[in-house]
Amino acid sequence: MSTVDFLKAFFKNPMHTGAVAPSSKKLGRLMVKSAGVAQATSIVEFGVGTGVFTEEIHNTKTPEATFIALEINPKLFEITKKRCPEVVIYNDDACNVKEYLAKHNVMQCDCIVSGLPWAAFPEDLQKKILHAAVEVLKPGGIFVSFAYIHGTSLPRGKKFYQLLKHSFSEVKKSSIVWANVPPAFTYICKK
Predict the structure, then answer these.
(1) pLDDT tens per residue, range 39-60
(2) CATH number of the domain that 39 lies in?
(3) Count of structural domains, the chain
(4) Which residue, 44, 60, 126, 149, shows the most beta carbons closer than 10 Å to its own?
(5) Torsional sign, CA 38, 174, 108, 17
(6) Whole-number pLDDT of residue 8
């Protein structure tokens, strides 16, 4: 998907796409490393977008690890299925993660890598998805998401940070990835 196509998807439905350009590989590497994907036996991805994180997760995880991903946008789902045909991706809402893990005989996962546009979501949707994430994470499990630096000053961006602090025992922020457009950082959250 070109940057032009990505922009079209953003303007068509910013609640589903939430970004003006695909994430950088540098941000993808940081997300995957922060989540501990290399040591995980069960991994979930929320919001595959164009597959930058998906590809990085697939290339980093052990062959034995269970990895499932969820993407609500049908076009992004198709793009990532073509980019990463060996990855199990479901075209559905992240809130339904428990159902899809059960299909793979997994009740709880080690980590969740989220590419969702949290600052674009209303508070009730943020809460609903975070509740689903916390429910399926193992004790000590890691939830990793990113935020654009400009989004942290928005009311929904601020609310998301507060929800993370309420939902997890530990919340850390990474340094800023200036190579991403727009610049971003990651939230690393421990259950």
Answers:
(1) 999 999 999 988 999 999 999 9
(2) 3.40.50.150
(3) 1
(4) 44
(5) negative
(6) 52
